[in-house]
Amino acid sequence: MCGRFTLRAEPDEVAELLPGLQVGAWPGPRYNIAPSQPVPTVLNEAPRVLTWTRWGLIPAWAKDPQIGDRLINARAETLLEKPSFRVPFLRRRCLVVADGFYEWPKKAEGKPRTPVYFRLKGHRPFAFAGLWDRWQAPSGEVLTTCTIITTEPNELVAAVHDRMPVILRPEWFEPWLDPDIRDPEVLMAWLKPYPAEEMDAYPVSRLVNDPRVDRPECIRPLE
Hints:
single chain, 223 residues, alpha+beta, hypothetical protein yedk fold, five-stranded antiparallel β-sheet, five-stranded mixed β-barrel, 5 helices
């Protein structure tokens, strides 16, 4: 599962992820991005613009938008089996831009759970593999929403959790965003655990547990 992440990078760093990527209004550093909030995405549409999309996928056919609260993540292994994800997987893929994410270990009896912060060595921004869709409310309002794909954990994340978000390698960004690529075998080949040796991790404050807390203390290592 991926339930919280960060994006502290500067706009010019994010723009370097893709040739020609346009980065517009910038909210400043985010230390605790949570479900239902706007998240930075690059949709597989032209032009290439960083779009702030609601986290929690609402399928175009959904009757109740609350379904998005349950669809913040999509398991890579079952994308073709789930009606909510099947069409987006083949036609509406996106990048979700981040520079770190949190996971919580299983609760030890009598002990509070301490979140762990994961990031790439070098602390550069990266992109999760995501899916997106558009849903129109009866009022006519249109919501663009997304979900983050998860996979089996690498050795580093496995010490904390049994799932991890799919982090795409930069050379996979363009093909992942190519709407003409619809071969499931080709797409599935990119949904693998990121190499553990290219990541690091450390425990952080339980301030992260509260989605209203969005400040540097969230990523400060515990002493």
